[in-house]
Fold:
Amino acid sequence: MRNLIKKTIFVLLLLLTLSFAFNLLEQSFEKEKEVSLTQLATDINQEKIQKISISGNELSLLYQEGTRAHSRKEEDLALSQSLINCGVSPEKISRVEIETKESNSLWIWLGPLISIFLPLLLFSFFFWTLLRQARTGAMQAFDFTKARARLFGAEGHPKEKITFKDVAALDEAKEELKEIVDFLKNPKKYLQMGARIPRGVLLMGPAGVGKTLLARAVAGEANVSFFSISGSEFVEMFVGVGAGRVRDLFATAKRVGRSIIFIDELDAVGRVRGAGIGGGHDEREQTLNQILVEMDGFERDDTRIVMAATNRPDILDPALLRPGRFDRKIVLDLPDIKGREKILKIHCRGKPLALDINLREVAERTPGFSGADLANLVNEAALFAARKNKRQIFQKELLESIEKVLLGPERKSHILSKKEKEFAAYHEAGHALVASHLPESEPVRKVSIVARGAAAGYTLKMPREERQIKTKSEFLAEMAVLLAGFSAEKMRFGEISTGATNDLKQATELARKLIKEYGMSSLGPIAFGKKEELVFLGKEISEQRTYSEIVAAQIDKEVAKFINEAQKTAQKILTKRRKLLDRLATTLIEKETIEKEEFEKIIGEEKSESAKPLPQKARTIKVKVKRL
Ligand code: ADP
Ligand code: MG
Ligand code: ZN
Structure:
């Protein structure tokens, strides 16, 4: 579209300049006086004319005094004859120098012709291009049943070939997929055995764990074609289009032979049927039906394999999961520390790394990061190094990128007012101080009041180990730390800012979990409420209340008790160490960021004992505190 506008402007400008040029030309013609033939005859008789140049029927006259004029002779008649007819004596004519020029009548004709036809030509060219573009647009619009599948692998882009080598971690998934690869490489071996090869493989896992990557790696490993289409692309305005695309996609793959058909975001079309708001037979359902029909239509020796990815397997239509369809399910988890290190290594390939790089340390500090996050982290570090005109990526850049990926970029432009800064400083100092004084809490790694992403300040802590199990006292310490920002503000200013909003939310959620899930309250070891939860996604979808109103009231009371106690703990620590709080806050206002070493110096030796991180073994950072 932009192109079209550019073209239009160009053509219009061209036309303008051309018409301008023609105008000028015409004017220069008109400058010469036009003299009639009889006038010319008189002038010759009066011997005013010095020279006449004839070209075609045009006469250029040169007068004795040097002026020029313009005239025309009669057609089909010699000039001298015409002049004699007009009463000029032949003798007078002989005194005039007469010159015949090569007739450039061609130009005389062409001139006006061009001035008429060139604009016309240009116009028609212009309309032609317009029309052509409109037509291709329309063709595309009408051709939507063609699946817009992208082809990679064998016949696609050989350079983009991805193999298992490019996928780190995910070893179990790779192991399971090796069978598929082997079948695609050598289908005969399996068919002779009479084995039934799975037609559909469903990859399940949270965003960014490498589902798409793995599917492409299977195709690359087996060296077959890879047709990729995203579920959301099936869903179009017009009913029937999605189904048409599915048909086309499967047919194309059949023509190619051994291939992988990859349907990304299967949940976009594969949702439970009959749950649509727009009635029973909407577009999505037709598309889904077509997928089922196509998969059922596979012959026994079919060498097409359908792979699909989703992060919402819970909402898939059960029909998709029946044998003969997506009966092979592979769960991809977020990488653990070893996996993270391997993924980092893969993404550091081909980048100039400084000698001080320690990917293990980066992996330690990035629990919960997906493969995509880690890829992003390495890229940020490279950008960072380039911006600083470094020739290599140093560990410093990598570590700084962790925070960037985690919290968003530093918002240098966001300038806190003096008052805001004081609030933020006391708030963060409160978190940090309480964290460092509770032995169950994790040591402080960094305190800052530099705004980052949505947070106006943050306190980073370092979990001593990456643990699956946590104890009640640790949870209580966590809640106290969460409420410390709130308490510090209240202590110093006698009022509370909105900065604690997110802390309160987190603390309350935690308290609820302690009561309802972990059985850590006085209500005893009972699980309250039934959750529709995706274990490997760590996401709660909905909650079903399985307890009475009375219990609900009791739970609310328990929550309040937990929060109250946490606040009391925080307050006690802060009151006892009021001086330290003031000093930390002052330092923060002055320096904005305090790193671990300096923090421990301020706190003094006494407490750094308990805050010391355990030697090595999975040290990680975690954002505990976000201020809005
Ligand atoms: P998903 O489809 O699960 O959302 P992708 O496959 O699109 O995730 O992964 C996004 C990017 O993250 C990949 O292109 C790759 O660069 C990186 N990535 C994710 N997982 C891994 C992994 N296990 N090994 C290497 N890179 C990975
Ligand atoms: Mg994907
Ligand atoms: Zn806070």
User: Anything to note?
Assistant: The two ends are 42 Å apart (CA to CA).
